[in-house]
Amino acid sequence: MSRRIDKSWLVFASIENPQHDRCVDLFRRPDGTYGFEEFRRDPEDAGGWTPMRYYSGGVHATALDAFDAAVKAVAWLAEENQRRPSLRAQSTAA
């Protein structure tokens, strides 16, 4: 698990871009709220994921709300969501 995702949070979806060098993790906190974070993976990082933004501080009431906020915030995810219409349902079926 990468930094900026607390160990008590349950990551229920990890969506990668087609190049497999960016991802968005969707998670649920123990208090029942949801959030997301964006990461990058560079060759010099030995395959590890590095947080890119500070989205994990955002609090969303539902998994769908977190996904929709991620799509608005992360350009490549919006493009991937357009390309794969079932992505929203698959990513929030937690």
Can you characterise this structure?
The protein is of the alpha+beta class and 94 residues long. It has one domain. It has helices at residues 63-73, 75-83, 87-91; strands spanning 10-16, 22-28, 34-40, 50-51. Strands 1-2-3-4 form a four-stranded antiparallel sheet. Helix 1 (63-73) crosses helix 2.
Shape: globular
Strand content: 15-25%
Q: Report the average pLDDT across residues.
A: 90
Report the C-alpha radius of gyration, rounded.
12 Å
Biggest β-sheet strands, sense, barrel:
4 strands, antiparallel
List the strand order in the largest sheet.
1-2-3-4
What are the defining features of this structure?
94 residues, alpha+beta, four-stranded antiparallel beta sheet, 4 strands
Write the layout of secondary structure elements.
Layout: E1 10-16, E2 22-28, E3 34-40, E4 50-51, H1 63-73, H2 75-83, H3 87-91
Briefly summarize what is shown.
By secondary structure, the chain is an alpha+beta fold. Helices cover 27% and strands 24% of the residues.
